Amino acid sequence: MQIVAVKDKRELGRKAAKVILEVIHKKPDAVLGLATGGTPEETYKELVKDHRENGTSYKAVRTVNLDEYVGIDPSDPNSYHSYMDHNFFKYIDLPEDQHFLPDSLATTDHDCARYDDLIDSLGGVDLQLLGIGGNGHIGFNEPGTPLSIGTHVVQLTDSTRKANARYFSSLSEVPEQAITMGIGTILKSKKVLLIVSGEEKAEAMYKLVRSSVPESGFPASALIQHPDVTVIADRSALSLIKLNKD
Ligand SMILES: N[C@@H]1[C@@H](O)[C@H](O)[C@@H](COP(=O)(O)O)O[C@@H]1O
Fold it and tell me: Which sequence ranges form a coiled-coil region, renumbered to this chain (predicted)?
């Protein structure tokens, strides 16, 4: 696991976009695994800026998102479908039929397995962008999730619902379930890019760096088994850690 220290969220966005662009430039039909949340917003801004200024094309790119709330209509402003449209898709030339998100309204075991099949049929994820929850969740894989699981439906913890309540008008509106790529799905990606920003992630970052064995109580620890993980973290996220070098 390579850790890249950056000053703040802006620099994090720039560095993360650079890693993603390297993948697209090398492989114009790359499959990108995408994430939502506050952390990747700057990364998407940088990618949009690059598309506008340098013309990087997404015409051949395919994207698959990590997760979506269960039961939420894709047109709902709080759906991850809407998040992706508003932060990224509407600004780039990615064809409509080349971006995929888990279906919030089709969540049987069969539907979940079909999402993994879809990813396999695209040739697998070349680069998976990830954020981390304060409790170590990746995607929506909450603590206790088996480390080899594929796409599945999860019951969200109170802490995750509270952390995401800032996007809804009240906590009671935050869905109780989500459909997410599993940790097994994530580990199949060829490359993982984890971005971590803010003091509220410092403890999770500390735990991740100290993880020596993958344990389901702290889902992000599964990443230590993966051969190609880059973590870009800002100063506040690294505040509990002493790094030898930047
Ligand atoms: N499902 C998402 C995760 O994929 C994301 O990593 C996490 C952290 O989000 P933020 O970047 O807003 O802290 O939030 C949500 O739970």
Answer: none
Q: How many CB atoms lie within 10 A of CB 38?
A: 14
CA of 131 to the centre of ligand 1 (A): 6
> Which of 34, 164, 168, 236 maximizes ligand 1 atoms within 8 Å of its Cβ, making it the mutation to test the pocket?
164
Using CB distances shorter than 6 Å, the residues near ligand 1 are 35-39, 66-67, 131-133, 139-140, 160, 164
67 is catalytic: yes
Do the domain assignments include residue 47?
yes
Structural domain tally of the chain? 1
How remote is the CA of residue 38 from the centroid of ligand 1, in Å?
Answer: 7
The reply to whether 242 falls in a domain is no
pLDDT in tens, 168-202: 999 999 999 999 999 999 999 999 999 999 999 99
CB neighbour class for 170 (10 Å; exposed up to 12, middle 13-18, buried from 19): exposed
Q: Is residue 90 part of a domain?
A: yes
> Across the strands, what pairs with 128?
33, 192
pLDDT digits over 49-93, tens only?
999 999 999 999 999 999 999 999 999 999 999 999 999 999 999
- Ligand 1: which of 41, 130, 132 to mutate, most ligand atoms within 8 Å of CB? 132
**Residues in a beta bridge with 155:** 177
Return the number of other C-beta atoms located less than 10 Å from residue 35's C-beta.
24
Domain range for 48 is 2-234
Judge whether 194 lies within some domain.
yes
